[in-house]
Design brief:
It contains 13 helices and 12 strands. By secondary structure, it is α/β, with parallel strands linked by helices. The strands form 3 sheets. The chain has a 6-stranded mixed β-sheet with strand order 1-2-4-3-5-11, covered by helices on one side. The chain has a 4-stranded antiparallel β-sheet with strand order 8-9-7-10, with helices on one face. Helix 1 packs across helix 4 (about 115-130). The longest helix has 26 residues, at about 400-425. It is elongated and about 85 Å long.
Length: about 450
């Protein structure tokens, strides 16, 4: 790792050790925080108890934080500490750690967001402790923790972006539970659509010809999309459910409803997949005589921009703590889920690594819910928090690293925007795929 001189190197290592000690000293409190959030398991935008647990942590358990309890959104918060290093002069480096805490319907914290909240809180504790031990920090620095609700549905980070909630931050860090440790995984761009068919009720045995079957439209649409998959690019995804299919077998369904997620590795490809899916939905309405309504979600999730410098720093510090990062090429190169952090990665330089929690169970299963609330997950969770702090300290002690991080951000964003413009100007569309488009929910 790059450092200015040996004195700085020694001071940096002392800070890293201090951060780790602070996190270890708070491990029981942090586990209680995580377990309390795990136990309440609240859905998107409804995380009132989880929000209050975190606010109390930064107002009562941890001292010295300035807390805005309802920051832009009812279940979001912001806690800040600093700035410190007033003698260093110059601009203030504002380092952000993010907490998520919404759960999934029916299976609770099967994506481990209670552990994401714990990582964010632990990293903040470690960073503050390390900076408090410094007599003269190399630069003015502020530590910010932002509680970001509604990742699983709605996109709370996107709401916060639109409200200016991340303005002033120089870096943002968070980490997500998984089955392996990876500094970067290619999360997909995603859009969700609710499709409603309106038909006409009638007695299904006495005079079915008087009805217009909305369930038939839903089934046709579902099958249309299943057939469409054969013509999709290998790394494009669409999947959904029939949410409402009728009320009684002897009544021709007058209403049906589907919910589908559409995903592509890059946001530039989403319009093409969206148009193909819409053709499937509308043709089902035409075939059955139903009226159809399409309602897209409030936000489109973007893919995560890779920041090579932050990824390298995370791996270097993680290996120093004993993390064994996956080398499985299929895992590293195959797009999987989606996250609203993708949108934030286009606004502020950041990193969204994945971490092993001691189980081979898969996310979004009951087994993963149990693992996310277990004692076993704690060692891995706190080790991840320490890695984030160590990486942040590297950037703090070496201004050249911060320049590299910001340059990586600029170049990645420019490349993405150029690809979008090239795609929009190529004349390619859903009926002209022919290779025109170059190939965390």
């Amino acid at each position: 790792m790059q450092t200015a001189d040996k004195c700085n190197q020694d001071q940096l290592q002392q800070c890293k050790q201090k951060a780790g000690c602070c996190i270890d000293s708070a491990k029981d409190t942090l586990f209680a925080l995580s377990k309390d959030i795990w136990s309440c398991a609240e859905l998107a935008y409804e995380e009132k108890q989880s929000h209050d647990i975190l606010v109390r942590f930064f107002t009562e358990t941890e001292k010295g934080w300035s807390v805005e309890s309802h920051y832009k959104l009812d279940t979001a918060f912001r806690a800040t500490w600093g700035p410190t290093g007033v003698n260093a002069g110059g601009d203030t480096l504002n380092i952000g750690f993010l907490c998520e805490y919404d759960a999934l319907p029916g299976i609770g914290h099967a994506c481990g967001h209670n552990l994401i909240a714990e990582v964010g809180a632990a990293a903040a504790v470690g960073m503050k402790g390390a900076l408090e031990a410094l007599v003269d920090p190399p630069v003015r620095v502020m530590v910010t923790v932002i509680g970001t609700p509604a990742e699983e549905e709605g996109g709370g980070k996107i709401d916060l972006i639109e409200a200016g909630g991340f303005e002033g931050l120089d870096l943002v860090f968070m980490a997500h539970p998984s089955q392996e440790d990876a500094a970067y995984l290619p999360d997909m761009a995603e859009d969700d659509v609710t499709v409603k068919y309106y038909g006409k009720a009638s007695h299904a045995a006495a005079y079915p010809w008087e009805g217009i079957n909305a369930l038939d439209a839903a089934v046709l649409a579902y099958n249309n999309l299943s057939v469409l998959r054969q013509q999709l690019k290998p790394d494009w995804r669409l999947h959904g459910i029939i949410k409402h299919g009728g009320v009684k077998p002897n009544i021709i369904p007058a209403f049906s409803e589907l919910v589908f997620y559409l995903r592509t590795p890059k946001r530039r490809d989403l319009p093409f997949l969206r148009e193909k899916a819409e053709q499937c939905f509308r043709s089902a309405a035409m075939a059955t005589g139903c009226r159809v309504e399409l309602q897209y979600g409030p936000h489109e999730y973007h893919n995560i921009l890779l920041n090579k410098t932050l990824t390298r720093l995370y791996e270097e510090n993680g290996k120093a703590l004993g993390i064994e990062f996956t080398t499985d090429e299929q895992v590293l190169n195959t797009p999987s889920g989606s996250t609203d952090f993708g949108n934030l990665s286009f606004v502020v330089p950041g990193i969204h690594p994945y971490f092993y929690i001691g189980t081979e169970a898969l996310n979004h299963t009951e087994e993963y819910t149990a693992a996310a609330g277990s004692d076993k997950a704690q060692f891995f969770t706190l080790r991840t928090a320490k890695t984030l702090v160590m990486m942040a300290l590297d950037v703090l002690f070496n201004p050249e690293l911060l320049k590299q991080v910001k340059e990586d951000f600029r170049l990645s964003k420019l490349k993405e925007e150029c690809e979008v413009r090239r795609e929009n100007g190529s004349g390619s569309g859903p009926g002209q795929w022919g290779g025109a488009a170059s190939a965390s929910r």
